[in-house]
Design goal:
Number of domains: 1
Largest sheet: 7 strands, mixed
Strand content: 25-35%
CATH topology: Spore Coat Polysaccharide Biosynthesis Protein SpsA, Chain A
Distance between the termini: 33 Å
CATH architecture: Alpha-Beta Complex
Shape: globular
């Protein structure tokens, strides 16, 4: 069976939550947010391994207070992150075993991704596609310059890019490696492939895939967690 790995990007600073505790380690239902994220992929049968890319200060906490404490079924490893998301993801990719065929890259603070969506993303990736999980944009989006609206975008063709984002391992490893050396800031891995001219396809997600970023997200997250219990 072709090996599928998961890289969880969890090396961010979490500054927007204005807390001494980084957002990925804050409690949701009395357990760290990152625990809930790992658990979602631990439950996917054809995932072989999970690698968490951590900030240097958080590695010990993740290893002792999450991985050892909760004894996941899959092998869960940690890797020290870099200065940027792209560099952090590259370190995670480089740590994977050479016989890895496919990789899913996911945000550490998106703990509510549904298993069915993960499985559909994997299914389409196995068919040869690069995949990004997306939800339809429901708001009207304006482009503004210096406080003045200059354009209204057609929301019928707009999608919110989420994670997981799923790729052939060799391809994304090579492209992220090249992206690190560019003077370009990439906010996700799909945009790296787009930059280099590769096709990326969508798996639509109609479920909540909340990225916990602001204090209000924690309140909403507690509500969503109750619905999963």
């Amino acid at each position: 069976m072709e090996k599928i790995a998961v890289v969880i990007a969890s090396a961010g600073s979490g500054k927007r939550l204005s807390s001494d505790v980084k957002k990925q380690y804050m409690l949701l239902g009395n357990k760290p947010i990152l625990y809930h994220t790992i658990k979602k992929f631990d439950e996917i049968e054809n995932v072989d391994s999970i690698t968490v890319v951590c900030d240097a200060e958080g590695i010990e906490f993740v290893e002792k207070e999450i991985i050892e404490k909760y004894a996941f079924k899959k092998t869960v490893n940690t890797v020290k992150g870099g200065a940027t998301r792209t560099e952090s993801v590259l370190r995670g990719l480089e740590s994977l075993k050479s016989d890895t065929k496919y990789v899913l890259i996911h945000d550490g603070v998106r703990p509510f991704i549904k298993g069915a969506v993960i499985k559909e993303a994997i299914r389409q990736t196995l068919s040869g596609k690069s995949i990004v999980v997306c939800s339809k944009t429901v708001d009207t989006i304006k482009v503004a310059e210096e406080g003045k609206i200059v354009k209204t975008l057609d929301r019928s063709v707009l999608w919110n890019a989420e994670t997981p984002q799923c790729f052939n391992y060799g391809l994304i490893l090579e492209m992220v490696g090249e992206a690190v050396d560019l003077d370009v800031q990439f906010t996700d891995e799909a945009s790296i492939l787009e930059y280099f001219g590769f096709d990326v396809h969508i798996v639509e997600n109609s479920h909540s895939n909340l990225k916990i970023t602001m204090p209000k997200d924690l309140v909403y997250g507690e509500y969503l967690l109750k619905g999963e219990m």
